[in-house]
Design goal:
The complex is a heterodimer. By secondary structure, chain A is mainly alpha-helical. Chain A has 11 helices and no strands. Chain B is mainly alpha-helical. Chain B has a two-stranded antiparallel sheet with strand order 1-2. Classes of the chains: A mainly alpha, B mainly alpha.
Chain lengths: 268, 313
Amino acid sequence: MNTLRLGAICVGVLILAALLSLMWTPYPPAAIDVPHRFALPSAAHWLGSDSLGRDVASEILAGARVSLLVGVIAVGIGVGFGVALGLLAASVKGWLEDAVMKASDFAFAFPALLLAILLTSTYGPGIVNAIIAIGVANVPVFAKLTRAAGNSVLEREYVLAARAAGRGPTAIAFEHVLPNIAAPLIVQATIQFAIAILAEAALSYLGLGAQPPMVSWGRMLADAQTWLYTAPRLAVFPGLAIAFSVLGLNLLGDGLRDALDPKLRARR
Amino acid sequence: MLSYAARRLTILVATLGFASLIVFAALEVLPGNAAETMLGASATPETVAALAHKLGLDQPFGARYLSWIGGALHGDLGQSYAYNSPIAPLIGAKLAVTLPLTAFAMLIAAGVALTAGVYAADRRGKSGDLAIMGFSQLGLAIPNFWFGILLVLTFAVRWRLFPSGGFPGWGDPLAALKALVLPALALGLVQAAILTRVTRSALVEALGEDFMRTARAKGLTRRRALWRHALPNAAPPILTIAGLQFSSLIAGAVVIENVFVLPGLGRLIFQSISNRDVLVVEDCVMLLAGPVILVNTGVDIVAAAIDPRLRAA
């Protein structure tokens, strides 16, 4: 089986789990049931129950929803602002291009997680601030990529032809540049999606992301760590869920890159 | 070469200045200040104002920024409101944990990545290569803090070979090193996954170049040609990524210190955030971001020294 198909299947499972959790989970994910805490995996609790008796399988399903939501919005912020800035830099050139690139280089040098910690600590912990922080860290990634890819498209003859035909820079950016750089953007978006899921998990693990009663895989791991000696299995499932999702997205990204770039496919 | 280095150093200073301004602004423009947090909700506005005046919080933004930077340049990082002590020695004590931890992790990452990357590139397409690529794909997907928890589960809870957390201090160097083994592994092995892939692909690229055929035609063995010609040519991209990774290593250290309850900079940041000890947070963030910016500049200069073509950029 090739990486593209394997990745697509993993991501498909993630999306299905998230959709399913909207309509049905075995138990309400945040329902506390202390008498049945630390239940072993059984027919009643497929993956057992945690320190407050919450059903782990339900929490894992609901966690998929949060991970997907964070990924979609954070990558959306990155693509929205980053592509706009990159297109602007590539089409306008001059000091504006310099400024956008310098700012992106600067943002790159700043560890993304540190930025997230700074933002969430300043404006308070919570899923919204975590998403914004991860999204902001995504902006320079897409700005740099869009500018570099856009510049190579702008040198092509068909752009010259469009310009000679009287099309303005905005029309050229949307009609010629954007469709021609979509492939690398989609690949990068997939990879950033994976990074966003990892970042959300880390922030929630640190207590800066999702707050109770919202379920998050990162928060589940933080809870599990307090009970390592009592119920080590609790630390396994959320981590597996994160690794599965990120692995699927990375494989999908690799597969898309190969599929969208025939030159690369031939070289491998 | 010198003018390139000079240009990079100018950018470095500008970047550091800009970074400090942003960090300072981000935390200073907040509603509420340290004085309110220290005195609690029941304090009267007058007492808050008096304490704010004593701490210098009522000064204008520019004046506070300049006094912070001016002090930092002279080695005075200011006073911690929460600990009521100078910040520099406070941070110094934490660095004694964070620095060895990141160095240890970087060593593990570089060692594993070079060995595995060269091995995989040398056997491209064979089973050894596929196995290493599979492992690195897993490494990319596993969050470092979960890997840390799994290490604790295996080596501390089950086999009791290493402590599950905490730090005994450098008074007993052996115990101190032992306490850093699991955290450094958690931090380093996940980083090694990325570096392995970069090393492999840069080497595969270099191995396909014409000069490699020339080197073999001259009579060099495959192994010798790889080390003498392919690896130096593959070095710049590997170095660049290793430099960029330093930033995720630093950020990762903040998380890992919380997993293993290590009294390093990461823990200090978290305590200071909840105490609204803004100056300490600012100093720590700059201290974490500063080396990243420094290392990136250093990497650019070294890469340009190895590959003259990069100097034009």
